Amino acid sequence: MIQRVLKQAKETLKDLNKNKWHYLYTGILIQLIFGVAGSFILRRIFGFVLLMTGQDNLNNTNIVQILLNPMGFISLIVYLILLVVLLFLEYQVFCLMILGASNQKKIAWKELFHPTYLKLNKQNIFNGLYFLVYVILGIPIANLGLSTTLTNELYIPDFITGEWSKSPISAVLLFVGGLTLIYLAFRFLFVVPLFTLTDLNFPQIYKRSWQMTKGKLIEFFLSFTLIEFVLLIILLPVFLLSLVVALILDNNGGNLFLESLLLTLINGCIFATNLFVKIGIFHLLIQNMQSFSNNLPLQNVQKKRKFASLALLFMVFASFYLSETYQLATLEYNPKIEIVGHRGYVAKAVENSVEGLRAAKNMKANYVELDLLYTKDHQFVVIHDNDLKRLAGLDKKVSDLPANKVIGLKIKQDGHTSKIVSMKDYLKIAKQLQMHLILELKPTGNEDSSYVIRFVNELKKSGMENQVKIMSLDLPTILAVEKLDPDLDTGYVIPIQFGKLPNEPVDFYAIEDFSYRPQLAEDVHQMNKKLFVWTINSPDKIRYYLQTPIDGLITDELKTTNQTKNELGHDKSYIDRLLDLVQPLQ
User: Fold this and answer.
1) What CA–CA distance (Å, rounded) separates 183 from 175?
2) For this UniProt entry, which segments traverse the membrane (predicted)?
3) What is the DSSP string of 430-492?
């Protein structure tokens, strides 16, 4: 097996070196066609879907309404069909490009769409779903290079995996589920090459891919990893050499144009590496294909149009250079961002505990976010899960118990212990600490008509109404709070969001990292509202968001956030900004 891995990797790397300029040129074309033009078309169709259904956006609350609208449903079907076609076309271009280069031929661009149309025309909607399943299965192994231009930013949102990982049982299920998806993704590696190079239908393709990968998962994984490792080794000296040259020519990092050139070169190397990793993987797959159709849109290589190729490369380089110059010139630390301790400071205490509140205060958080549930006898307690199993070890629900059966319950998490407290006691301690709070109302569906009134009255009794913000995932609940007392600072929590944010009568929005786009911050500020983003925990993302126009960052990692703020707070040279902008390899 090791000999086969080394042999296949050697042949693949040899082909990458031999056809590197052809692959780079074609890869840039693919990026422009599918990444720019394809994205533009999909955005316009998505906008048409929203227009037909009278919606401003697509989120977790209105998806059913959009699907039940006949025009919305039809428009979404058209959107999905076009998405499938574009995804397939990109994969097919890669396969044909590699196959052509191996046989001293090239893609017949003018003839590419006709055979693709004929193949897709033979399929039905269920076969389209087969292909979407393939794309979804590829998400867990996208970092190996199998994502497309249109799906390279697709991933499972952190708030889903994060919440599941907090319970031992669900963490095991998440781990097993992840391994299962990875296993299936590897078993269906040959779906695209088989569809491109054979006349099989999708059920036959899945069956054939399953047969071709039997007993070879480790071999394929080692081959992919070896190719990626070699390409990274090639990239590293280029990166270090570029950095050293820049430091020699501009030792104080103050030359904007030189540092922009360096950033362009670095990101160009990263793009090329990602491209060659993807091509290398497809090359390995095609090597293992035993039979394929000869009726492919390939033609003999003619005299290369060097001027056109050089002109394209120059225009792309110039565009990237201007873009990087703008980013370096405008990238700045935003000191006005308010730091919110998510459920307190969970590194030092149980979530939503008084100890976590005190720990967050010691870490100089601007706010502490906490969760409020409603007991059977109409009292508010501070806890996130309605099910007491995860923290208290009880197979009971908060909403089914009276307050005296919930308050004082011992809770444990990551070696820390505490007790569940009432909203009243929590607010009292927060007031003593002069700690501002963000209260998240979490209705379970069992609340009575006095739910909102009781909450507002309890809040006003505490004297903390001017030191807190109130938010909820449930829009009717937060709108009821806003209507009852417009002076309260209210916010709407949105976990999944596509399109514009709704202009609701609230004071701020809290969106999940997965849904954030820079345009959203501008849109929210034009509404004279604020934007908070949750839950930001990785060092790279903390650093990124501290240099955006958002108003609040909700995080579990208060120590890392403080350290990053201190680093960014000093006067930054362009070389510092450059290092912030260099993205990790995907």
Assistant:
1) 12
2) 21-46, 66-89, 129-151, 171-196, 217-249, 261-286, 307-323
3) HHHHT-EEEEEE---S---TTHHHHHHHHHHHHT-TTSEEEEES-HHHHHHHHHH-TTSEEEE
Which has more pLDDT, 153 or 576?
A: 576
Q: Which residues pair with 381 in a beta bridge?
A: 373, 422
Asked if the model's pLDDT at residue 339 lies above 90, the reply is: yes
Cα–Cα distances in Å, from 196 out to 278, 284, 463? Answer: 16, 15, 68
What pLDDT, on a 0 to 100 scale, did the predictor assign at position 152?
60
Task: List the alpha helices (DSSP H) in 288-353.
Answer: 306-330
**Per-residue model confidence (pLDDT) at position 156:** 61
Q: pLDDT tens digit string along 242-268?
A: 778 777 777 777 788 888 888 888 888
The yes-or-no verdict on residue 345 having pLDDT over 90 is yes
**Domain locations in the chain as residue ranges:** 2-330, 338-581
Coil, strand or helix at 184: helix
The residue behind tokens 């590829």 is 138
Q: Report which of 416, 410, 464 is spatially closest to residue 439, judged by C-alpha positions.
A: 464
Query: In the numeric block, which tokens belong to residue 139?
Result: 């998400």
DSSP 8-class letter at 370: E
Query: What is the CATH superfamily name and number for domain 338-581?
Result: Phosphatidylinositol (PI) phosphodiesterase (3.20.20.190)
pTM of the predicted model over 0.90: no
The neighbour count for residue 538, using CB atoms within 10 Å, is 13
